[in-house]
Amino acid sequence: MALMTTEQVAEFLGVKEERVRRLERESLLIAAEKDDAGNAKFNEDDVKRYKELAERIGGI
Known about the structure:
The structure is a single chain. The protein has 3 helices and 3 strands. It is an alpha+beta fold. It has a single domain (1-55), classed as Orthogonal Bundle (Multidrug-efflux Transporter Regulator, Chain: A, Domain 2). A 3-stranded antiparallel β-sheet has the order 1-3-2. Strand 2 (33-34) and strand 3 (40-43) form a beta hairpin. The longest helix has 13 residues, at 44-56. The protein starts with a strand and ends with a helix. The relative contact order is 0.24.
C-alpha cells in the first residue's frame, strides 16, 4: 500500500491542495493515516478509485 501526501494527491487529481484537504474534511476522500504534524496521508488505490468515481459523475 503506497501512501500519498496531500500535495501528491492534488497533483494527481489536478486540483489545489486546499481542495484535497476539504475532500478529507468532508469524508469524501479518507486519509489512511496522519503524520506527527497532522498532515493526511492517502492510500494510492483509494485516490485512484475516487478519481474514477468523480469522473463518472461529472468531474472532481
